[in-house]
Amino acid sequence: MKRTRNVKIVATLGPASETYDMIRALHETGADVFRLNMSHGTHEEIAEKHKHIRKVEEDMGSPIAILADLQGPKLRVGVFAQGSEDLVDGAAFRLDLDDTPGDVTRVNLPHPEIFAALEAGATLLVNDGKIRLTVVECGKDFANCTVVTGGTISNRKGVNVPDVELPLAALSEKDKADLEFACNLGVDWIALSFVQRPADVEEARALIMGRAAVLSKIEKPNAVARFADILKVSDGIMVARGDLGVELPVQNVPPIQKRLVRKCRAAAKPVIVATQMLESMIESPMPTRAEVSDVATAIYEGADAVMLSAESAAGDFPLEAVSTMNNVATEVEQDPTYTQIIEASRQAARTTVADGIVAAAREIAETTDIKAICCFTQSGTTALLTARERPRVPILALTPLQTTARQLCLSWGTNCVITARLDRFKMAVVNAATAARAQGYASDNDQVLVTAGVPFNVTGTTNILRVAPCDERLIYATDPE
Q: Is 85 helix (H, G, I), strand (E, B) or coil?
């Protein structure tokens, strides 16, 4: 589908959006990527959603990316004899491995790995940070704490440990089973939760074995501290502001978001800004002004994609939420200030022939009457490098590989077209002209830029740039070979 904006929209599927008709409507309204949350639903239910997405893709003739988001290890307290207790500021409270139902003085924390890593002075956050505890004394099976910020604590509330690196793998046994299921299903991206170190990503990559691209969710302070190394081994990044805002002071999150987005763009790797973007639209057909500004800010920063979670998965107005995001993105990208910000933040990282080719393509397109940049790509790298340039003209990513076309649906400005496998540059030019006309980006009287690599069908060989007419008769007349 031809979009009128470059930033992509990720919509999470759930009870409010699991039918074929709704998924199709969401795609028509603006969703480019569908997220399957592996924390919810059985494998059978997830497979049904996947089937509907692929049917929509087939019926509408446009590639759609599917992102499977793994749950990650969930740290939770046990249960209370009364169901819940009210903790007051300054009170003593104990966490231990005893599975006896808790009371106002203690509760089970069935995670010995937490106790193994804790030190006196460490902070524990319960129930999304609403309750804050400070460790006074700890051992291999207990932690005596002081309640710094009290509140109601109830059964199986989540626990965050912000200032300690936990000896936990990012992949639980459930995650490994979900990962294998999702890869066999044929998803395009796997999102990893609870990433703390590059080794977490490398472990997942070894299990994925090239069957999907790897996206690391940045939601831990340790991940922020090691971001450069995590980015190197990841194919994409999600700035998961929910847990990040629990484990760090909330005022730290906006500057972190800006830094991470810029670093991803410099590395030519797609980045999603996620969590609570249009939260009020779970129950309201209209967003708040602050939410609209939040979405707009992520777009002004240069994010590849913005994401809806419960708004599209379980809310009362999933279509309105996608429509709102689409409208905000369209309006922002038409703002001259947007172009100024994006171009001012462009970083010259040109160390390869491919870097030079895509930079030249962007400069030529912006100084002459070029209607589109057409990139022939195997792995998607050329299209990602072109997207990093944030050109003012559309990007057509042409590839013979369906997997590449789907994965590129997450990248800024890429309009993906599946083409035949080629062995001559002239046929690449013909295919580019045909695609530009068919997609409505150019007519016979226009010109496009074509980038490709010789030899063909080899990853990492981008070395040709040509300005070509869109009239195939002119192509054959001027390039008979």
A: strand
Please state the domain extents for the chain.
8-72+169-335, 84-160, 353-478
Mean pLDDT of the chain: 94
Residues designated as active site: 35, 76, 217, 275
Q: Per-residue pLDDT averaged across 60-69, rounded?
A: 96
d(CA 105, CA 45): 41
Specify the CATH number for 353-478; select among 1.10.3120.10, 3.40.50.150, 3.40.1380.20, 2.60.40.3080. Answer: 3.40.1380.20
CATH architecture of 84-160: Beta Barrel (2.40)
Distance CA 85, CA 481 (A): 80
Q: Which uninterrupted H or E stretch holds 455? A: none
Contacts of 118 (CB under 8 A, 6+ apart): 135, 138, 143, 161, 164
239/164: higher pLDDT: 239
How far is it, in rounded angstroms, from Cα 143 to Cα 133? 10
* pLDDT tens-digit series, residues 275-302: 999 999 999 999 999 999 999 999 999 9
Give residue 479's pLDDT band: very low, low, confident or very high (50, 70, 90): low
Decide: 391 and 366 in contact? Cβ < 8 Å.
Answer: yes
Residues 6 or more apart whose CB falls under 8 angstroms from that of 17 comprise: 11, 23, 26, 312, 313, 318
C-alpha to C-alpha distance for 11 and 19, rounded to whole angstroms: 14
Pick from 11-15, 95-99, 213-217, 475-479: least confident? 475-479
